[in-house]
Specification:
This protein is mainly α. It is about 65% helix and about 5% strand. It has helices at about 1-15, 30-45, 60-75, 80-105, 105-120, 120-125, 135-150, 155-175, 180-195, 205-225, 230-245, 260-265, 275-280, 290-305, 320-335, 340-365, 380-400, 405-415, 415-420, 430-435, 440-445, 460-465, 480-485, 495-505, 520-525, and strands spanning about 50, 55, 455, 475, 495, 515-520, 535, 540-545. Helix 2 (about 30-45) packs across helix 3, helix 2 crosses helix 22 and helix 8 (about 155-175) packs antiparallel against helix 9.
Length: about 550
């Protein structure tokens, strides 16, 4: 048992920690969540978030604090800004292990649950990327598990302590990404207590965690209000109510959008759902644990689906309950002496992985339908990718032939490890050129002096991060900085093409003006601006010095 626990830790480190610094920073998300903490450290202002020196009120402050702490410990690099997301996944897996160890089959079942969680495709993708979703999901997961421990506890003092812990965790979730950290527990726990016929506890149990959550959130909430009185108006109405209900949301998606996202994000376990359903059904829904997981999965999923704006990362808090049901279902299915659904699912996924490997090789060798993802100098990347898919396919096929279900589950979980690990290293150069401007910006760092006027369009967070500046002008539209630019002390930072031309003319002979944008926007501005003294266009990004 000790070896299995160490094995899960090794798996986590191999997939989530070791390769974090390999990939370049991706715009706009990773550069944003790197730059805001950097500016906090640089300015010493830990209350009001700023991006490019402009007020940035889309999220509360805790996620930035976590990234800032990591930067202070490990430096200004990709590993540091991704580490909080990765550690959040590891802590979530540990919470699931503890839940199963206590209430759902003991140590071995806990190992299965933690492994299933770590190997979910969306958990892996988001957990090795610098966004706030993994952190808020961790706090929500821990809060929900603390609630279930309290629900199952008979001793009053310990029950109260667990409810206080739940409230603290909800408060931390709120400070990370806002009211979603409170909404998920509410929409899940209320139907659960009704289903359990303990609805009277809805009038007694919530007060302890509510008070604890308020005490955690209030200090910063008051400080930000005193510093920026309009914060709560913008944060509550614009970032929550309008995003949820607007007919013209920022990310419009149909109601059913999260169904394929959940199914795809749960791979490789999705193909085993028939076995999971059969295993869960054998309990006849009498288990409080299963009822809890169903309510935790179903009602937040519907809540997210009713929102008019959707991103795939929004449903990350739904994966822990899905993992609970998956682990319980698979273990009950195998313990019932059944294997057919598992064997069929493993073989189907083996065939799909094999087809993907062949398709990757064919597309690279013959450039079938122009689908070649890698250039001539990247042969080693697609060979490693194809090898990872073939190993995945082979181990799945072999797992279907074994007789011992523990060995079957082990091989099934181990099958995609090589492919997932190599994914950090085989990012196509074309993707780097489109989504990772860091190398391009650093190539021109020597041309940037302290008095150089920087102007950007859509790349402001990356320009600020790589050049260590927070005074970049914007051209065109304000984008995500539109609200901050509406303040009198920041509005002058947004320029039209005509204003940029005038700025270049007024500073001529005194200081350089550098425009950093993409080729699409540059083609619109080029004819309106003076001829640059230096110009570099690498296919996607443009560096023009005037």
């Amino acid at each position: 048992m000790k070896k299995s626990f160490l094995g899960v830790i090794a798996l986590f480190c191999l997939l989530y920690i070791v390769p974090l610094g390999v990939r370049p920073l991706i715009v706009p998300d990773e550069s944003r969540y790197a730059e805001i903490p950097r500016e906090m450290i640089s300015s010493g202002d830990w209350v009001v978030p700023h991006l490019n020196g402009v007020r940035y009120f889309e999220k509360p402050v805790l996620g930035y604090w976590l990234n800032a702490a990591s930067i202070m410990l490990f430096g200004e690099n990709a590993l540091a800004i991704r580490l909080p997301s990765a550690l959040a996944v590891g802590i979530s897996a540990l919470m699931l292990f503890m839940l199963f160890q206590r209430f759902a089959g003991g140590y071995s079942a806990g190992i299965v649950a933690a492994t299933v969680f770590l190997m979910c495709l969306e958990v892996f993708a988001v957990g090795t990327f610098s966004v706030l979703d993994s952190a808020v999901s961790m706090f929500v997961t821990a809060a929900m598990i603390a609630f279930f421990f309290a629900y199952m506890e008979d001793r009053t003092v310990k029950k109260m302590g667990l409810l206080v812990l739940m409230g603290v965790l909800c408060g931390l979730a709120f400070l990370t990404k806002g009211f979603i950290g409170l909404a998920v527990p509410v929409v899940a726990i209320v139907p659960f207590l009704i289903w359990e016929r303990r609805w009277k506890e809805l009038f007694t149990m919530p007060w302890v965690p509510i008070i604890a959550a308020i005490l955690v959130a209030v200090p910063w909430a008051v400080m930000i209000h005193l510093r920026e009185p309009d914060f709560w108006n913008y944060f509550f109405w614009t970032e929550h109510v309008e995003r949820f209900m607007s007919d013209h949301p920022q990310h419009p998606r149909p109601f059913w959008f999260f169904i394929p996202m959940l199914a795809g994000g749960a791979l490789p376990w999705t193909v085993l759902f028939p076995a999971v359903i059969a295993g869960v059904g054998s309990t006849r829904l009498s288990s409080s644990m299963i009822r809890f997981a169903i309510c935790w999965l179903l009602f937040p999923f519907l809540f997210f689906s009713f929102s008019h704006g959707k991103l795939g990362t929004y449903i990350l808090p739904c994966f822990p309950p899905l993992v609970i049901l998956t682990a319980i279902g698979l273990l009950d299915y195998f313990e019932g002496g059944k294997k057919r659904a598992f064997i069929l699912g493993a073989r189907i996924l083996a065939i799909l992985a094999g087809i993907l490997a062949v398709a990757l090789v064919v597309s690279q060798v013959v450039n079938f339908m122009g689908l070649r993802a890698y250039g001539p100098s990247e042969t080693w990347k697609w060979i490693i990718g194809a090898a990872g898919l073939m190993v995945w396919s082979g181990l799945l096929g072999y797992s279907a032939r074994l007789l011992n279900f523990k060995k079957q589950l082990f091989l099934y979980a181990a099958a995609p490890v090589l492919f997932m690990f190599s994914a950090h290293f085989i990012m196509p150069d074309l993707s780097r050129q489109r989504k990772a401007p860091g190398e391009f910006l650093l190539n021109h760092a020597k041309r940037i002096r302290p008095d150089t006027v920087l102007v950007a369009n859509g790349l402001e967070p990356a320009v600020c991060w790589f050049y260590k500046r927070d005074d970049v002008y914007l051209i065109g539209k304000g984008g995500e900085l539109s609200y901050g630019l509406s303040y009198d002390d920041s509005g002058h930072r947004l320029l039209t093409a005509g204003q940029l031309k005038k700025l270049i003319e007024n500073t001529h002979g005194e200081k350089e003006v550098v425009l950093i944008t993409d080729t699409k926007h540059y083609s619109c501005y080029r004819a309106l601006l003076p001829k640059p003294i230096f110009e570099d266009m690498d296919g996607r990004f443009v560096f023009a010095e005037f």
